[in-house]
Amino acid sequence: MATPLSDPSLSLSASPLKTVAVVGLGTMGTGIAEILAKAGREVVGIDISEAAAAQATAALESSTARAVQRGRITEQERDDALARFVTSTDLRAAADADLVIEVAPESYDIKHQIFRELDGIVRPETILATGTNALSVTRLAADSARPERVLGLHFFNPAPAMKLVEVVSSVLTAPAAVAAVTDLALELGKEPVAVGDRPGFVADGLLFGYLNQAAAMYEAKYASREDIDAAMRLGCGLPMGPLALLDLIGVDTARTVLEAMYAESRDRLHAPSPILKQLSEAGLTGRKSGRGFYTYDAPGSATVVRDALTPLEGASPLPGRTVRSVGVAGSGTMASGIAEVFAKAGYEVVLAARSEEKAQAAKARIGKSLSRSVDKGRMTAEAAAETLGRITAAGSYDAFADVDLALEAVAEDLEIKQQLFAVFDKVCKPGAILATTTSSLPVVACARATSRPQDVIGMHFFNPAPAMKLVEVVRTVLTADDVHATVREVCAKVRKHPVDCGDRAGFIVNALLFPYLNNAIKMVQEHYATLDDIDAAMKLGGGYPMGPFELLDVVGLDVSLAIEKVLHREFRDPGLAPAPLLEHLVAAGCLGRKTGRGFREYARR
Question: Could you tell me which residue ranges the 3-hydroxyacyl-CoA dehydrogenase NAD binding domain spans (predicted)?
Answer without folding.
Answer: 19-197, 326-503
